[in-house]
Amino acid sequence: MLARGGGLVGATNSPSPSLKDSAKSFLRPTPRRPGEQDLTKSPLVVGMTIGAAVLALTAGTLWFVLAREFMNRKFETAQKALESGQFSQAIDGFTKFAAEYPKTEQARLAKVNIGKARVEQALSGAIPDWENGLKTLNDFVAEYRDSEDFRPGDSLLRTFARQAADKIALGAAKTAEATKRRPLLGTSTDARQLLDILSPPDNKPEEQLTAISAALKAAEAAILQQETFDTALADMKGAIDKGTPLAALQTYGRLLDRYAVAEKDRAIQAQLKTALEAEKSATVRHENPVVESQVAGSPSDLVNLGFTRRQRVRTDVASVGTTTAAVAEGALFACDAVTGEVLWRRSVGVGTPFPPMAVQSRQAGFLAWDSARGQLICLAERTGEPLWTTPLAAVPTGRPLIHEGQVFLTTAGSTLVQVDLQTGERLAELQFNQPLIGPPAVSPQGDRMYVAGRESALYVLSRRPLACEHTVWLGQPAGSLSAPLLMLRDYLLLVETAGADKSLVRLLDTSRDAKAPREIARSSVEGQVFDAPVVRGKQVIVASTPERLTAFVIAETGDAQSLTKVASYQVPGPQNVPMHVLLGPDDQFWMSSTALRRFDVKVDSIVTDNSQIAVGRSEEHTSELQSHSDLVCRLLLEKK
Questions:
Q1: What is the percent of the chain with per-residue pLDDT over 70, rounded to a whole number?
Q2: 566, 604 in Cβ contact below 8 A?
Q3: Burial tier of 108 (Cβ tally within 10 Å: 0-12, 13-18, 19+)
Q4: Which uninterrupted H or E stretch holds 368?
């Protein structure tokens, strides 16, 4: 029954149904007649709707997962192509990836990998194309320079650009050093500058920049060396082609002074071998050359100069028939070695290149140079009568070598003359490309001789017949050799001036290959050396300016220990005067300079006799000594 107000009479307020009850009520609606049901509340429809929603959610999730997996696979495929060196495929893959997924984090990495692939593509190959690699990197930087992904100092794009610049800068410098390509130095310099620009001002990669600078310096040195080598090779070849192999040797010497490694360069050594062979071939042999006297006028027109120095003849001793000779004031004179009596004199002119030498020709005599007549003369020992005279085309440049009845003499005409000691006949003459430092040194077997040129070369000569057999690179600077070579069994010793106050003593071994002596040891002495060292057993005495003696010991070890310096001695208050050393009686040494002094060489010292036999300046070489009186007669002294 309705009550006033629309309510039911007798109704009361009841509590709201629970969620569970509402669900049950919804799922179990009030029964309705057929045709009056609400389809939206049909259990079947509701179930199908919920199932469809679940399926849709599942499908969306699956699609998202599959899409991400597909994206990752695209990136990985491009990444594998990059790592395997398939740069074109990698560039194509990363480009498509960045276009399809521009807002992903991997898109930024894809851009980095695109640049990396392009740079690596340019650098791929046996020899990387660093120039193209730098161009590609510059294009990459220009493309992304203004993008937000490039501006931060630690961004992926900027970090990659710095790493690539570092790689190109260092790699181009090292390749330039290896290949000697100068344009790569510019590539390396530009890449280093790019690395510096891309680095934060407060965090410069100083270690990398320093390493690149060091590599650039090494590359510059290597390229300059190769350019110098190439120029030297061209100059040497040109000199050989022009028929001046000595100029090629000079070029090699200058190159070796600058780059010691030139002696290991195959191309340079091959050209050196060609130059030495050409120098050997340039030596010309003349059989029995005929030379007219180079002095105008008849010998009879020349005035015989007398012996003008004061002499003292001893009357309390008897002559034993021995004679000694000397040259003074343009005259050659002979005197009795015991009494001092002057036996004969002959005018020979001034400026004799060597002192008279006692020889055994048809009879005992003296071999000398007559500068007034331009002749090599042999005079009888006791009478001074000419045994023979031989005109020469040029003045001798040193003492003759007397060996097995033959006279070998170097001249200012760059020739080596062979003269028969018995008859004075000129047997042969070798014409060289340069002046020689005489006399030659003879091998122990006597079948070869060695003579040094004024510069660069050592000539190995055969004796029978006299011919140039081989030319060896010795490397002596022009004019550095004054003292003749010295043969010490299988060793060849020479002294080379190395400056105003130093000389080098060099020891060459001829035992391994007589045609190609090789240096095995060297040492140094203070001062300059002008005369041949003096030998006593294994001891070698070298006289150097001013008034200094240095003793060496020679050992037959065939290595750097073969030459050992043992002692040196210098006269108190030394002067730059001519200085000559001679082995005298009782194995003592004599030295003439500002005074005549006697000394001996001990194991590790040079012991001098404090007494001075004569005071004065030595004017010429001393000769072999037989007695004290012989020494006094031979040594000419000028009073101070």
A1: 81
A2: yes
A3: middle
A4: strand 364-370
Give CA separation, 188 vs 82, 169, 172, 179, 220, in Å: 25, 4, 5, 14, 11
User: For the sheet containing 534-536, what is the strand order?
Assistant: 534-536, 539-544, 548-554, 563-570
The answer to whether 435 and 453 are in contact (CB under 8 A) is yes
The candidate with the shortest Cα–Cα distance to 361, out of 381, 334, 338, is: 381
Q: How many CA atoms lie within 13 A of 85 on its CB side?
A: 3
> Does the pLDDT at position 31 exceed 80?
no
Which of 412, 438, 461, 426 lies closest to 283 in space, CA to CA? 461
pLDDT (mean) for 10-28? 58
Is 575 within 8 Å of 546 (Cβ atoms)?
A: yes
From the list 544, 634, 543, the residue with the least C-alpha distance to 589 is: 543
How far is residue 555's CA from residue 507's CA, in Å, rounded to a whole number?
A: 11
Q: Are 362 and 351 in contact (CB under 8 A)?
A: no
Closest CA to 432 of 454, 447, 448: 454
| b (16+ CB within 10 A) / e for 245-270 | bbbbbbbbbebbeebeebeebeebee
Nearest to 195 by CA among 215, 224, 218: 215
For strands 491-497 and 502-509, give the pairing: antiparallel
Task: Decide: pTM greater than 0.85.
Answer: no
Write out the DSSP string of 1-63: -BPTTSPBTT----PPPPHHHHHHHHHSPPP--TT---GGG-HHHHHHHHHHHHHHHHHHHHH
Q: Nearest 5°: phi and psi at 480?
A: -85, -15
* Token pair for 57: 């959610």
For residue 304, the tally of other CB atoms under 10 A from its CB is 11
* Phi, psi values for residue 364, rounded to 5°: -60, 135
Minimal CA–CA distance to 488: which of 510, 521, 516, 464?
510
How far apart CA 81 and CA 78 sit, in angstroms, is: 5
User: Which residues, in sequence order, are CB contacts of 103 under 8 Å at separation 6+?
Assistant: none
Distance of CA 430 to the CA centre of its chain: 33
pLDDT of 130 reads 92
* pLDDT for the residue numbered 401: 94
Rounded-to-integer distance, Cα 551 and Cα 532, Å: 13
Q: Tens digit of pLDDT for each residue in 188-199? A: 999 999 999 999
pLDDT at 283 over 60: yes
Residue 309 has pLDDT above 80, yes or no: no
Judge whether 591 and 579 are in contact, CB under 8 Å: yes
CB 409 within 8 A of CB 422: no
Angle between helices 206-241 and 156-179 (to 10 degrees): 20
DSSP 8-state assignment for residue 545 = T
CA distance 254 to 150: 55
CA distances from 514 to 401, 446, 485 (A): 20, 12, 15
Give the pLDDT confidence score for residue 245 in this predicted structure: 96
Residue 407 φ then ψ, to 5°: -110, 125
Q: How far apart are CA 500 and CA 520, in angstroms?
A: 25
The rounded distance, in Å, linking the Cα atoms of 603 and 614 is: 28
Cis ω before 465 (30° cut-off from 0): yes
